[in-house]
Amino acid sequence: MVTRHFTMKEAAALIGSTEKALRNRLARRQVPYRKLGRRVLIPGDELEKFLATLPGTTADEAVAAVEERGRT
To answer: What are the distances in angstroms from CA 52 to CA 7, 45, 69, 72?
Structure first.
């Protein structure tokens, strides 16, 4: 099974925050991540779990919104 990985920019858009705020969450180990060289990648399944803990929208709604923005 292949897991999609999000860049910092994509993940920040999904959770509705800035990249700096997301980096702070990564530093506090609130969101798991992987490093590939100098790149920081966030596994999609882990990001969905994190989104599910946030109040407001569901993870599916957030992912759909970001994918829709990417098409325009």
So the answer is: 19, 11, 21, 26
Six-digit token string for 24: 């702070």
33/25 Cα distance (integer angstroms): 10
Helix crossing, 59-71 with 44-53: angle to 10°?
A: 120
Could you tell me the residue ranges of all domains in the chain? 5-71
Report CA-CA distances (Å) from 36 to 8, 66, 71.
13, 23, 26
Give pLDDT tens digits for 18-59. 999 999 989 999 888 999 999 999 999 988 888 777 777 677
